[in-house]
UniProtKB/TrEMBL annotation:
Entry keyword set: ATP-binding, Nucleotide-binding, Organic radical, Oxidoreductase
Descriptive protein name: Anaerobic ribonucleoside-triphosphate reductase
Gene behind this protein: nrdD
Organism: Candidatus Nanogingivalis gingivitcus
UniProt modified residues of type Glycine radical: G722
Location of the Glycine radical domain: 624-748
């Protein structure tokens, strides 16, 4: 067993006689008295002051601990059974000063600093001021939010205020765990200040069929595919403004097909009325000619309809990319397609891919949204003899040039999640669910939020002791349980008229009246709520060293960790009636936040905090550069326990001249993983024509060929989380290029 920590805890096993004593935390919880935590805090103060833990440091620790033990023993003998955190800190500070005043002052300074941080987290003026101060942890939190824009700046200002209010609303022990970095309560800038939901699969089919209302407008069912896509764009904008996560359209090709058929019928009638057709008709004198004439009509109507489809899909692409929700950003939107085999479904699929390949505007830039997810299915498009194999070829071309589409393996998704559907947003998956009539339901369901557990911290705190690791994990999971339950209870406090598009007009499937409880669309496991996690690589590194991927014992340990999370979510789901799921968190800023906080707490630890980021979810350590096949073989075992949210990525060089290489990976992955994304360089310089991977610098990304870094004449697109992002829209500050370089790499 390898321990990468720079120091070991002081051997204070002799201090075990306070088994009945309790410590009252700042959040009011009572926990068992643990002398190890006191000795660890003193040791960190010694190292902070002297730079090491040598013989003198051991002397200071020994002598101080003897004083403290005597003081606590006296209090216990006098009948004290519970100590507050402040009382213990005062005891430590007083006796550490007796032994070494400088180290005592260091301990006091750290304590005051932590108190100051806690106060600032609850200070509205300080939090709002972070935007004006240019705090990059605030202004650069989201790769697709430009803090320079007025409406985005306004949303961020409101969000900073909401964070302060939210922390005050949370159960004290949950807020405390979030502030300390034990957990992360996601999206505090929106929830719990408001009872918002997270991400969803919009029920577009129901809304388009039965109509809906936005603002003062009652919208009828569309009579053409162009109107249908226009309505979809408006629905997306309204839904995105009434929740805080991504929204998806499942099977968009099949949803739009009936409206393409309406266009075809109108085109057929229109072309029959054109005068030159009657001239053609005049030459028809036989049944054979009549058939040829009918074929002519159908051919022309089909051609016109294909043009209508293309125009409608192109309009949808532009509308989504030019929308701004109330959050000050383009809605995080996903379109799923690929299973339809009918004439119009095929044309819709082809239009989606051709338009994405073409690009946006005169310079043909890569569209950031919507995220495209293409479904592979054996018998439909996977193999050469399948009817839609030609569309798979088009999808491969698109992925090599624009990174999207990501691909879903139909059979594996059904195996992992219980039914087929695209993810909500970038990677959050609903689990199979049937209504009271036994009908499978996916569209119209949603997620109520995420709380992520800092797994590497638990491993660091355990110092390579498996028993201690499992004990700490059990304790932290109970905090997550309380946090997730709070998310559910807060979301249930909404009323239908708070978000009519969601609850009254079909986006969430059921249409509720003003007097209905919104829990009608949440309960009985219709909604999910997610337990996130980060850093399985770092967890195993604490116990087995940084090169553990080929060690089956180490991998089995990481699988047991995920299985433990999965078992807990099943237990909670059965207890409360909501689907608690394990979610492989994609947060582009959280991998940095947890590591930054743990580096402050534990120092620089090799292969853990020294990287300045934690490895996302269950991914293979990116520094080792595995082949796509090695990476997928390694990662394929994890989603079984994390089916509430997962995705696999593979790194490639420029692929535009070799789409067959990407097809080989897609085919290899089909029976192994459910959801696969492509990372390939697609940056483009419009001054010299270079296409490939731009270089991050302190002044922004630059073309490696001509050094151009002007955003107006280059297109830089990176995948920094589940979605693509344009990092050039974010201001570069000191060291920013290093952060982007590491983020772009490790978030893949």
């Amino acid at each position: 067993m390898t321990n990468n920590l720079q120091y070991k805890l002081f051997d204070d096993s002799q201090y075990t006689r306070y088994t009945d004593a309790k410590v009252q935390k700042r959040d009011g919880r009572l926990v068992n008295f643990d002398m190890h935590k006191i000795s660890n805090a003193i040791k960190k103060a010694i190292i902070a002051q002297t730079g090491s833990f040598d013989e003198y440091g051991s002397y200071v620790l020994d002598k101080t601990m003897l004083y403290i033990d005597s003081a606590i023993d006296h209090d216990v003998q006098m009948g004290t059974t519970t100590f507050t955190i402040e009382e213990l800190q005062n005891i430590v500070e007083a006796h550490l000063h007796l032994v070494d005043a400088n180290i005592g002052n260091c301990y006091k300074t750290y304590r005051l600093k932590r108190d100051e941080i806690r106060q600032k987290n609850r200070d509205v003026n300080h939090q709002v001021g972070a935007i004006e101060r240019g705090d990059e942890t605030v202004n650069n939190e989201n790769a697709n939010k430009d803090a320079n824009v007025f409406n985005t700046n306004r949303d961020k200002t409101a969000g900073q205020v909401a964070k302060v209010i939210g922390l005050q609303m949370l159960p004290p022990h949950v807020a405390n765990a979030h502030e300390k970095g034990d957990i992360h309560f996601h999206d505090l800038d929106y929830s719990p200040h408001l009872p918002l939901t997270n991400c969803c699969l919009i029920d577009f089919e129901e809304m388009l069929k039965n109509g809906f209302r936005i603002g003062n407008a009652d919208v009828d069912s569309p009579k053409s595919i162009g109107t249908a896509t226009a309505q979809i764009a408006q629905i997306i904008a309204n839904v995105a403004s009434n929740q805080y996560g991504g929204c998806s359209a499942d099977r968009i090709d099949e949803i739009l097909s009936p409206y393409a058929e309406l266009n075809y019928k109108k085109n057929l009638k229109k072309i029959s009325d054109i005068s030159y057709v009657f001239n053609e008709l005049a030459s028809v004198s036989t049944a054979r000619n009549q058939n040829r004439f009918n074929e002519f009509l159908e051919q022309k109507a089909t051609e016109w309809t294909i043009k209508d489809i293309y125009d409608a899909v192109q309009a949808l692409e532009y509308e989504i990319n030019t929308l701004f929700s109330s959050q000050g950003q383009t809605p995080f939107t996903t379109l799923g397609f690929g299973l339809g085999t009918g004439k119009w479904e095929r044309e819709i699929q082809k239009a989606i891919l051709k338009i994405r390949i073409l690009g946006l505007g005169a310079e043909k830039r890569t569209a950031i949204f919507p995220k495209l997810v293409f479904t592979l299915k054996r018998g439909i498009n996977l193999e050469k003899e399948d009817p839609n194999y030609d569309i798979k070829m088009l999808a491969l071309e698109c992925a090599t040039k624009r990174m999207y589409p990501d691909v879903l393996s139909y059979d594996k998704i059904v195996e992992l999640t219980g039914s087929f559907k695209v993810p909500m947003g970038c990677r959050s998956f609903l689990q199979g669910w049937k209504d009271q009539d036994g009908n499978e339901v996916n569209a119209g369901r949603m997620n109520l939020g995420v709380v992520t557990l800092n797994l590497p911290r638990i491993a660091l705190e355990s110092e390579g002791d498996f028993t201690k690791f499992w004990n700490i994990l059990e304790e932290r999971l109970e905090i997550c349980h309380d946090a997730l339950l709070y998310r559910v209870e807060r979301a249930k406090q909404a009323i239908p008229k708070n978000a009519p598009i969601l609850y009254k007009y079909g986006a969430f499937g059921k249409r509720l009246s003003d007097n209905d409880e919104v829990d009608e669309v949440f309960k009985n496991k219709r909604a999910t709520v997610s337990l996130g996690y980060i850093g399985l690589y770092e967890v195993a590194t604490v116990f087995f060293g940084g090169e553990w991927e080929e060690n089956q014992t180490a991998k089995n340990f990481t699988l047991k960790v995920l299985e433990k999370l999965y078992q807990k979510t099943v237990e909670w789901g059965n207890m409360h009636g909501y689907h608690f799921s394990v979610y492989s968190t994609p947060s582009e800023s959280l991998t940095d936040r947890f590591c930054r906080m743990d580096k402050e707490k534990f120092g620089t630890v090799t292969n853990i905090t020294d990287k300045d980021y934690y490895t996302n979810s269950f991914h293979y350590d990116v520094r080792k550069n595995p082949t796509p096949f090695e990476k997928l073989d390694f990662e394929k075992d994890y989603p079984k326990f994390a089916s509430g949210g997962f995705i696999h990525y593979c790194e490639y060089p420029v692929l535009q001249q070799n789409p067959k290489a990407l097809e080989a990976v897609w085919d290899f992955a089909y029976d192994k993983v459910g959801y696969l994304g492509t990372n390939t360089p697609i940056d483009k310089c419009y001054e010299c024509g270079f296409e490939g991977d731009f270089l991050p610098t302190a002044k922004g990304f630059k073309c490696p060929n001509c050094n151009n870094r002007n955003p107006a004449t280059c297109d830089v697109v990176k995948r920094t989380c589940g979605y693509l992002g344009n990092p050039q829209m974010r201001p570069m500050v000191k060291g920013r290029h290093k952060e982007i370089k590491s983020r772009v790499k490790h978030m893949r």
